[in-house]
Give the backbone structure.
Amino acid sequence: MNPNREKNRIRFIFFCFLFFALVLCLKLYFIQIIHGSEFVDKADRQYVSPLNNLFDRGGIFFQNRDGSLLGAASLSTGYNLAINPQKITDPVLIYESLSKILSLDPDWFYFKASQKKSVYQKIAERVPEELMKKVEILKIPGLQIQKERWRFYPGETLAAQTLGFVGYDGDNLVGRYGLEKYYEDVLLRKNNQAYVNFFAEIFSNIKQTISADFQKEGEIITTIEPMVQTFLEKKVSEISEKYTSKLTGGIIIDPNTGEIYGMALAPSFNLNKFGEEKDLSIFNNPLISGLYEMGSIIKPLTMAAGLDSGVVTAETKYTDTGSLTLDTYTIYNYDKKAHGTINMQEVLNQSLNIGASFVVSKMGKDNFADYMRRYGLDEETGIDLPNENHGRLENLNSPRDIEYATASFGQGISMTPIETVRALSVLANGGKLIVPHIVKRINYTSGLFNNISYINEAKQVLKKETSEEISRMLTVVVDKALANGKVKLPNYS
């Protein structure tokens, strides 16, 4: 190698560095010395934060019957406004200028402006962009503007307990309830980690691990149909007002797929104003976590078990005496009347406790208990919501006949509403135990997607013929017996 050529190359590189250093120094000189006061004045007037650290989160969508999407949880952008009291020379003039644009309490503003030991006092939050543009025109010294983004729920109260909301857990904004919590890994955006990962990859081979985290990010599309949800919430609210109940709820499910079209509770709350709620229990979803003795709606499950095991048919008859004494305890029909010799169809038509007990006596205790467990009444359903509970069937471990008799009409055993709905779906879908769920699709930011279906996971717990027969019997109940047929829908059976 030519030594002179090598020296020339070193000199060239040295002079390049020297040139760039001089350019940088000149730039700093112009910024700090020549235009220093101009930039200081500009900084004193206002400060708008960059977008880098703005809150970000994946969206949640409802889906209409025609396939179109409706935002359930999205992001909204606005501005926080603060003042530097040390730069405020005429608070009265500034207040008069700002109050023409923003709704500001004068006493509050003057108090903030008087805090001369502070350099930052917030005076307004979530100011819309159109108003902030008017504020910027004023060029008020000491004014600080910070861009902000937050979670917004367009439906306000719509499916509140199902959606859940985003709130602080320590210093972090995370999903606290509902879908927001259950799908935290999908909805969370790891913005702050992006910078750490860049340098981490230089020093260690962790690229695959980092990529896996980011591949989880996406948005979720739910099975909730807005019109169905709105209808259900209206009905639940009406029932709550009519009976002045402390808690009323309802679930609408597709018994074949497990997709939940509506899940409603009363009372409910406004997701955009959850901080105003004093009773934090309103955020919970008792439809998946509450345990209740379900009463007479368990009778169809008892009857289906009797049909499936072959001990009764719709025409099997018994003599109804109106009461039954077992283990020194006496149980009665709801009206405490004897109904004579009647068949199993009439047991459902008239919702007779003694008739349901008769079915269990024909089945035997162990057989009946086995069917209740087949229905999944003592296990979690697997629904995609947090804090799911499971039913209690401990009474069916007892040797006492009375426990099984009362369980036949839903007393002495407890379960969640979602467990109950899933079990009743077995009667309508050919005898299969399905998985209820609320999210049908995840769209990942990587461009991939996941269509969610649990149809192949359904377990056969009743014969198809049993499902068809109990469905026929319950159709008769609705069309002819329930309120003397007044609840039958026109053109439907």
